[in-house]
TrEMBL record:
<feature type="domain" description="Rhodanese">
    <location>
        <begin position="266"/>
        <end position="357"/>
    </location>
</feature>
<dbReference type="InterPro" id="IPR044528">
    <property type="entry name" value="POD-like_MBL-fold"/>
</dbReference>
<dbReference type="InterPro" id="IPR001279">
    <property type="entry name" value="Metallo-B-lactamas"/>
</dbReference>
<dbReference type="GO" id="GO:0050313">
    <property type="term" value="F:sulfur dioxygenase activity"/>
</dbReference>
<dbReference type="GO" id="GO:0070813">
    <property type="term" value="P:hydrogen sulfide metabolic process"/>
</dbReference>
<dbReference type="Pfam" id="PF00753">
    <property type="entry name" value="Lactamase_B"/>
</dbReference>
<dbReference type="InterPro" id="IPR036873">
    <property type="entry name" value="Rhodanese-like_dom_sf"/>
</dbReference>
<dbReference type="GO" id="GO:0006749">
    <property type="term" value="P:glutathione metabolic process"/>
</dbReference>
<dbReference type="Pfam" id="PF00581">
    <property type="entry name" value="Rhodanese"/>
</dbReference>
<keyword id="KW-0479">Metal-binding</keyword>
<feature type="domain" description="Rhodanese">
    <location>
        <begin position="379"/>
        <end position="459"/>
    </location>
</feature>
<dbReference type="GO" id="GO:0046872">
    <property type="term" value="F:metal ion binding"/>
</dbReference>
<dbReference type="InterPro" id="IPR001763">
    <property type="entry name" value="Rhodanese-like_dom"/>
</dbReference>
<protein>
    <submittedName>
        <fullName>Glyoxylase, beta-lactamase superfamily II</fullName>
    </submittedName>
</protein>
<dbReference type="InterPro" id="IPR036866">
    <property type="entry name" value="RibonucZ/Hydroxyglut_hydro"/>
</dbReference>
<dbReference type="InterPro" id="IPR051682">
    <property type="entry name" value="Mito_Persulfide_Diox"/>
</dbReference>
Length: 462
């Protein structure tokens, strides 16, 4: 038996490859299918089934393209309905893969079609449980993403409690839990950075197994931040047949001359997205460009701040990273990338085009400016939980997640100094707001650097 976790840090997402005796399955694949085809080839295996634990909200999965490329059967859990060919699995149904068995365990709660898959080895011993978003390491899936008029988040939380305690709790302690996500995903509130663990350890350490049902429901529905706006769009895409991945990448990697790029950039319905490093963007970028760098959680932040999933996008990328940008955009359903600036910002400058520099200050300069009054409008753009844990006393909090709402209150006659935890998210915020004509200054190193400065009269609330 071969079992491999294919973990994508940008999405904090785990897909799984399992093979035995020349047959293989994939669980929760990403949209680009070539890595799975390569893995199957490396292990002399034919992909027989593609399993989805549920209709994912935070990324577009690749079951349709993978089935088309391999002839594999797509397996969806009970209650799932989709527009493509699939096998609707029954609770308790067994699928054979070589000498292995996969048992369907229906676990509604995160969504009503959510399903776990129990792996038994060649000897029939229970080895692993692929839990999707039902059970994370240290957490469980949020119960609000599938809430409807006839099914509240409290209803879903109640179903999830029953699934955990009636379907998962009785399983053997030595089973390995393999979830669909880890820390950094918006599909849970406080999941661990671990990407697997024994079920026995989760029974001992995960709060979800310790609470009574009423307390469990209260815990799950309290303190939920609004899900990113692209989540419902991704769910819908995962239920239908979409433009194939290769077509999207071919279009997104179209090289655009300076003149062609400029012509597109001048169109109101086209967004210029600069995906280079923090320092490269700050040094010089195009007027009106938004920064979302590949070095951070690129795809989730695209989904959080680019509100229209059908947005036309043209890209500024580091040389050799153009296909990676198009791939990461497509993972979250942004399929309308029209190409990239050939030759990059250097080509733009060589033709005498205007560039803009982002003003930056060090953390110490920021603190000194607050102390002497030369900096009057500081903004903290971290998440609500981060801000609640520790922040500069009296500072204005405007989370990046809500940039399009909270930036409406900013005054174009003022200069704002903005920070996050490390300088990445604050530059995203600054670039978006600056495109609206507001003066923004980024604090290098963010709150992490601020805490290491000589604070003087400035106090932190913790």
């Amino acid at each position: 038996m071969i079992l491999e976790q294919m973990y994508t840090k940008c999405l904090a997402q785990g897909a799984y490859f399992i093979s035995s005796q020349g047959e293989a399955i994939i669980i929760d694949p990403l949209r680009e299918v070539q890595p799975y085809l390569d893995l199957a080839k490396d292990h002399d295996s034919t992909i027989k089934y593609v399993f989805l634990t549920h209709f994912h909200a935070d990324f577009v999965s690749g079951q349709v393209d993978l089935a088309k490329a391999t002839g594999a059967t797509v397996i969806l859990g009970p209650n799932a309905k989709a527009a493509y060919d699939y096998h609707g699995a029954r609770d308790g149904e067994i699928f054979e893969v070589g000498a292995l068995q996969i048992e369907v365990i229906h676990t509604p709660g995160h969504t009503m079609e959510s399903t776990c898959y129990l792996l038994r080895d060649e000897e029939g011993k229970e080895q692993a449980l692929f839990t999707g978003d039902t059970l994370f390491i240290g957490d469980v899936g949020r119960p609000d993403l599938a809430a409807k008029s006839d099914l509240t988040k409290e209803d879903l939380a109640g179903h999830l409690y029953d699934s955990l305690h009636n379907r998962i709790m009785p399983l053997s302690d030595d089973i390995i839990v393999y979830p669909a996500h880890g820390a950094g995903s918006a599909c849970g509130k406080n999941m661990s950075s671990q990407t697997s663990d024994t079920l026995g350890n989760q029974k001992e350490t995960n709060y979800a197994f310790k609470l009574h049902k009423e307390d469990f429901i209260k815990e799950l529905v309290t303190g939920l931040s609004a899900p990113p706006s692209y989540f419902p769009e991704n769910v819908a895409m995962n239920k239908r047949v979409n433009t194939d991945f290769d077509t999207i990448i071919e279009r997104g990697t179209t090289p655009l001359s300076v003149s062609a790029f400029e012509a597109l950039a001048l169109q109101e319905d086209v967004l210029v997205l600069d995906t280079r490093s923090v320092s490269a963007f700050a040094k010089a970028s195009l007027p009106g460009a938004w920064f979302i760098g590949l070095s951070g959680q690129f795809a989730p932040w695209v989904g959080a701040v680019v509100k229209d999933i059908n947005q036309k996008i043209i890209v500024i990328a580091e040389q050799g990273k153009e296909e990676e940008v198009a791939t990461r955009l497509s993972r979250v359903g942004y399929d309308h990338s029209l190409g990239y600036l050939k030759g990059g910002v250097e080509a733009w400058i060589s033709e005498g085009k205007e560039v803009v520099e982002t003003q930056e200050v060090t953390a110490q300069e920021f603190i000194d400016g607050l102390s002497n009054g030369s900096i009057a409008y500081p903004i903290d753009v971290r998440k609500d939980g981060e801000f609640a844990t520790s922040h500069i006393d009296g500072i204005t909090h405007m989370s990046l997640d809500e940039v399009h709402t909270n930036s409406k209150d900013l005054d174009p006659s003022r200069t704002y100094h903005v920070h996050c935890a490390g300088g990445y998210r604050s530059l995203i915020y600054a670039s978006i707001v600056r495109s609206q004509g507001i003066n923004m200054v980024n604090v290098l190193g963010g709150y992490g650097a601020i805490k290491k400065t000589e604070l003087g009269t400035i106090k932190l609330t913790e």
